[in-house]
Design brief:
Belongs to the TRAFAC class myosin-kinesin ATPase superfamily. Kinesin family. KIN-13 subfamily. By secondary structure, this protein is of the alpha+beta class. The protein contains 31 helices and 17 strands. The protein has a domain at about 140-540 and about 560-580: Kinesin motor domain (Kinesin, 3-Layer(aba) Sandwich), CATH 3.40.850. Helix 21 runs parallel beside helix 23 and helix 23 crosses helix 25. The chain is globular, with a radius of gyration of 29 Å. Bound molecules: adenosine-5'-triphosphate.
């Protein structure tokens, strides 16, 4: 294991405190051990920032239960009433405890650096444990030399990176055999296809579909394979019944950037999806690759090998002198989002906090990042993280992921630490500046939102959270591809975490995984509609950028063709050029694909879940409908046609200015829909997972059927946002609890001070009594307020339980 591992983490907090205690606290060895115990307790409660002040007060840890008033508080109704009166007299605002924690100046400034915990060194260490997203100082990232250095294409050429094939290709031996057969029997990809794949690689959003083979159970049940793949297109043959019960097959055709059938290996998946964006990571790109699909469709199977492959290529590039000389290093972190909460998969599932810094950069406090210089160690981390994931059993998958797992590989540039700066910059050195990164997301099953009323509350909340995040993710992709200034990343924890993947120089690859069996038809169609929507957004974005490219001076194109840039160009200029060169490649693809255009395409009969008529009938403005019409149009008949492209070019030229004006109402609609759609978590059937992207308002009041896309019936909507409200209240309750403990600590400090004063000769007992009375009242009021909040929350849970029972007669 030649890998070098370096750790930057929040556990340094405890270490610092233990060190401090070991260095000789005032209470001697037993108190030191107590401090360590307290530090651990506080850390586990997300209150580590309180550790040092507590240590500095010299409070004996054995007193902690008393200090925290365990078993204390208003027990009887009479006591409670008295406390309420007291609160009123004190003019307390019970809501104030719900404020999220913001370290007060008092807590941080009042402690000297010598306390260890708050020393600059330690703080920096802690900071280094953050997902270092705020280190994007453009001018510092890459020297002109680096930018002008052409990438050595060889390490990423297919066939070169075979080294780890045997190690991590999860394909079973059975599949390996199939693959060999496939290699012989399946016609090798045409040049055209290869070209189109390569050139399309630069698209900002790329949508790939992967179909898995029928599994043993499905074969045993003699289920039909209803999905046929033909190059970049696929057809779903949906078994349907007419009203007179005659069986018939309805065909749904889709076309994507790439469609990978059941014979395609994980290796090939990597080549099509991630490999092309690896070099861009060194050019400030934040890439995201995620798998989407129903449970058991192969998301984990698809996603697991990708980071390892990517790490292999990244490490290879990092070893090139140009990057090695600049101290470019690779860092890995792995965490999951489960039930709206973050857990570090490489640190015993330690709960993580997400914070925004002053520059609105998202930081994951306490997330461990490991420097990795060897692929073997990456493999070990991945295995460790996967073993720590939240999984459970579903009907479709015995090892089903119940969370979103996010593995991030970040390339950082580490500055040289000169002796004079060593002290202050040592942590800067450790964390480095993020040059670019790639996030691999294995999403929880997309239909989990439909695992609803038969399940317990926890599972429903899980489902709601998953649905919410998938919708939010789609919203972000939509905004991203429209180049909107506002990206709605606050829609969920998932998108908040991925915030930096949605701004600036980003690339997104979506792998939609589908099951081929007839029993999964509904889910498969849902997945494909979601993917289709994302893809159509991608097309519009690229087409618009083609405009910009066509007006570029030829020198840019020259630069593109050689992949090298003039050394004299300044950094920002370079990136400007890179931004536009990418669509230029896309444009060439468009032209190549001309023959595949089918001019007879009837918009209304397109196999999309969102036919034009539906949209118009359902109240979208004509401007929006026009735009959607274009998007739908460009989504079919190949990647895009010349005709479509040129018509859009014209249309776009005419209406370029109008697009932003059209966008806001469209976004507004989607926001309204979003809250309606969140209600789907109640639904028992597959429709709950449908995640339609443009469900018109009327749908909530009546049945909706998309004749050409499989029938989908909409039930009356449940009360909107119930679950979201509960999740929010839960967060608020936990925040209030933390705040209450902080207040208690503060009060305890005051009490200790009072005790110290009263013991002094000549102290005034009257003062002591008055102040103690005041302090105790505050303590009691804090508890009552928290209890009241807790009672409200319990009430909400009960209410929701009753509501569910009423809604679903068992
Ligand atoms: N392309 C494939 N070839 C062979 N087997 C596959 C393929 N895709 C998936 N499988 C198998 O199908 C099963 C389910 O796959 P996987 O666990 O990846 O599904 P998932 O989409 O991640 O499910 P969940 O959302 O429940 O976590 C696994 O046993 C996996 O090995």
């Amino acid at each position: 294991m030649g890998g070098k591992m370096q750790q930057t983490n929040a556990s340094a907090a405890s270490t610092a405190l233990y060190d401090h205690a070991a260095a000789g606290g005032s209470l001697g060895p037993s108190a030191d051990a107590g401090d360590a115990v307290m530090a651990r307790w506080l850390q586990s409660a997300g209150l580590q920032h309180l550790a040092s002040p507590l240590a500095s007060t010299g409070i004996d840890h054995r007193l902690l239960p008393n200090i925290l008033m365990q078993g204390y508080g208003a027990q009887s109704a009479e006591e409670k009433q008295r406390l309420f009166k007291l609160m009123r007299n004190l003019n307390f605002n019970g809501e104030s405890v719900s404020e999220p924690y913001i370290p007060s100046a008092q807590t941080s400034a009042g402690v000297s650096a010598s306390d260890g915990f708050y020393s600059p060194d330690f703080r920096g260490d802690f900071g280094a444990g953050l997902l270092d997203l705020h280190a994007m100082d453009d001018t510092e990232l890459l020297s002109e030399h680096v930018i002008s250095e052409p990438f050595d294409p060889s390490p990423l050429m297919p066939g070169v990176s075979k080294g780890f094939e045997n190690d991590f290709n999860l394909t079973s031996s059975r599949q390996q055999g199939e693959q060999t057969d496939a290699d012989l029997s399946v016609p090798s990809p045409t040049n055209e296809k290869e070209n189109s794949t390569k050139e399309n690689n630069a698209a900002k959003i790329k949508v790939v579909v992967r179909k898995r083979p029928l599994n043993k159970k499905e074969l045993a049940r003699k289920e039909d394979d209803i999905v046929t793949v033909n190059d970049n297109a696929l057809t779903v043959h949906e078994p349907r019944l007419k009203v007179d019960l005659t069986a018939y097959i309805e065909k749904h055709e889709f076309c994507f950037d790439a469609v990978l059938d059941e014979r395609v290996t994980n290796d090939e998946v990597y080549r099509v999806t991630v490999e092309p964006i690896i070099p861009t990571i060194f050019q400030r790109t934040k890439a995201t690759c995620f798998a989407y699909g129903q449970t058991g469709s192969g998301k984990t199977f698809t996603m697991q090998p990708l980071p390892l492959r990517a790490a292999e290529d990244l490490v290879r590039l990092l070893h090139q002198p140009v990057y090695r000389n600049q101290r470019f290093k690779l860092w890995l972190s792995f965490f999951e989002i489960y039930g709206g909460k973050l857990f570090d998969l490489l640190s015993e599932r330690k709960k993580l906090c997400m914070r925004e810094d002053g520059r609105q950069q998202v930081c994951i406090v306490g997330l461990q990042e490991f420097e990795v210089s060897d692929v073997q160690i990456v493999k070990e981390f991945i295995e460790k993280g996967n073993a720590a994931r939240s999984t459970g059993s579903t009907g479709a998958n015995e090892e089903s992921s119940r969370s979103h797992a996010i593995l991030q590989l970040a390339v950082k540039k580490h500055s040289e630490v000169k002796d004079s700066r060593r002290n202050s910059d040592v942590n800067d050195y450790r964390s480095g500046k993020v040059v670019g990164k790639i996030s691999f997301i294995d999403l929880a099953g997309s239909e989990r939102g439909a695992d609803t009323t038969d399940n317990d509350r926890q599972t429903r909340i899980e489902g709601a959270e998953i649905n919410k995040s998938l919708l939010a993710l789609k919203e972000c992709i939509r905004a991203l591809d429209n180049d909107q200034i506002h990206i709605p990343f606050r829609g969920s924890k998932l998108t908040e975490v991925l915030r930096d993947s949605f701004v600036g120089n980003s690339r997104t690859v979506m792998v939609s995984c589908i099951s081929p069996n007839a029993g999964s038809c509904e889910h498969t169609l849902n997945t494909l509609r979601y993917a289709d929507r994302v893809k159509s957004l991608s097309k519009s974005g690229n087409a618009r950028k083609d405009q910009a490219v066509s007006s570029l001076p030829p020198t840019n194109k020259d630069a593109s063709s050689t992949s090298s840039l003039p050394v004299s160009v300044d950094v920002d200029d370079v990136y400007e050029q890179q931004e536009v060169r990418v669509p230029d490649m896309g444009r060439r693809v468009v032209e190549k694909e001309t023959p595949s255009y089918n001019p007879t395409v009837d918009y209304d009969k397109q196999p999309s879940g969102f036919s034009l008529n539906e949209r118009e009938e359902n109240g979208l403005s004509s401007g929006i409908a026009d735009r959607e019409r274009f998007e739908s149009n460009s989504s079919y008949g190949g990647l895009a046609s010349q005709k479509v492209n040129s018509s859009y070019t014209q249309h776009s030229a005419d209406t370029e200015e109008k697009v932003p004006k059209v966008s806001p109402p469209r976004r507004k609609i989607s926001r309204e829909e979003k809250s309606e759609k969140f209600g789907n978590w109640f639904k028992k059937d597959g429709s709950g997972s449908d995640l339609p992207t443009a469900i018109p308002k009327q749908q909530s009041t009546g049945n909706y059927s998309a004749s050409n896309t499989g029938s989908r019936q909409y039930k009356p909507d449940p009360p909107v946002g119930n679950i979201n409200a509960i999740l929010e209240e839960e967060e608020a309750l936990i925040a209030a609890h933390r705040k209450e403990i902080e207040d208690t600590m503060e009060i305890v400090r005051e009490e200790m001070k009072l005790l110290a004063e009263v013991d002094q000769p000549g102290s005034l007992i009257d003062n002591y009594v008055t102040q103690l009375n005041f302090v105790l009242s505050r303590k009691a009021a804090g508890l009552v307020s928290l209890q009241a909040r807790l009672a409200r929350f319990q009430h909400r849970l009960r209410e929701q339980e009753i509501l569910n029972r009423k809604r679903v007669p068992r």
